[in-house]
Amino acid sequence: MWYEQPFRKNENLTTLLRAIRELATFPIRIMEVCGGQTYALSRYRIEELLPDTIEMIHGPGCPVCVTPEETVARAIEIARFPGTVLCTFGDMIRVPSDEGCSLQQLKAEGKDIRILYSPLDSLKIARENPGKEVVFFAIGFETTTPVYALLLHEIIDKKIDNLTLLTSLFTIPAAVSFLAQDPECLINGLLAAGHVCSITGTETYERLARELEMPIAITGFEPADLLYGIYRVVQLKTQGRNLTVNAYRRAVPAQGNPIARLQTARYFTPYDACWRGLGTIPASGLKLRPPYEQYDARNRFCSEVKPDIRPSVCRAGEIMKGKISPLRCPLFGNRCTPDTPLGASMVSSEGTCAAFYRYKTN
Ligand code: SF4
């Protein structure tokens, strides 16, 4: 049974909860950075078990949720070009544009839009369709970008000239730093995402803890991982120590994955990226380096004119800053549901609104 597994075992969780309750005698706001952590917190109803002194803030680490409206509009623009095949991950096709259109809708109208599990599958599609332009709509963070680097390597090595990338790539530390310094956000501690740190290593977060003057725990995604991470953050806060602990050693080596970082740096360079709901954050995104710009789908397809994006009714930005709970969005659960999402946060299972809808309204 699932609850017999060590990271989900009742007695282990009860021990951790007791330890947290004993320590958390003061108010503390902890941001879990990753959408996978948000999903697990909701799925196992962990927030309901925590003492009232601990407030969890659901951060920006869902790639579907932070891909900006402008990029979704670009994907739709590209998918409408005759003779194109637009490939991406499943959740991305359901994200509505500001006009209410989505890639899913275009697919239903007969446009060639394909859901792939791996970006590398687009190589086969490009080879099998030499008369068509294939575009991979590439979203993600530090964990996914090395796969796009591998895809680019293959495109160049195999001289494939009909496959390009529409990128929406972000790096977590810059966003965390931005949010932690936002006076509206007011966080006192962080749960960093274990899978991101398995690429970046721990050093970046050790520096971040010093700069932001708050404790950070690198955690995994099982209930015991999350509770242990929360416990360590509260413990460090109690001791007045602003440092990073690796609470996910079984997956995160201190040095991360240097080969993946090297490949990412070979093809991508940082830039000031726009995050949906948060705006532009300095040096928080990755775009193709100049020698590889020919593989950028924007250069092959998109007009110079920026799409005219209307102000959104979605309040996901406020949720990411911890200003409101999804339950306070007036559209939550009535006009905005997983079947009829009005914002990206209701689309992906890692989106805070979708996680709340699935686990907190039943
Ligand atoms: S409920 Fe829908 S509209 Fe409201 S914040 Fe969430 S995704 Fe946005």
How would you describe this protein?
- With 362 residues, this protein is of the alpha/beta class.
- The protein folds into 3 domains: 2-63 and 173-246, HypD, alpha/beta domain 1 (Rossmann fold), CATH 3.40.50; 65-170 and 257-301, Rossmann fold (3-Layer(aba) Sandwich); 316-360, no CATH class.
- Helices cover 39% and strands 19% of the residues.
- The chain has helices at residues 10-23, 35-43, 46-49, 63-66, 69-80, 103-108, 121-128, 145-157, 172-180, 194-200, 203-212, 223-239, 258-267, 297-301, 316-320, 352-360, and strands at residues 28-34, 54-61, 84-88, 113-115, 133-140, 163-170, 189-193, 216-219, 244-246, 268-275, 279-288.
- The strands form 2 sheets. A 6-stranded mixed sheet has the order 4-3-5-6-11-10, with helices on both faces. Strands 2-1-7-8-9 form a 5-stranded parallel sheet, with helices on both faces.
- A hairpin with a 3-residue loop joins strand 10 (268-275) and strand 11.
- The model has no long low-confidence stretch (mean pLDDT 93).
- The structure holds iron/sulfur cluster.
- Iron/sulfur cluster is lined by residues 314-316, 319, 326, 329, 331-332, 336, 342-343, 345-346, 353.
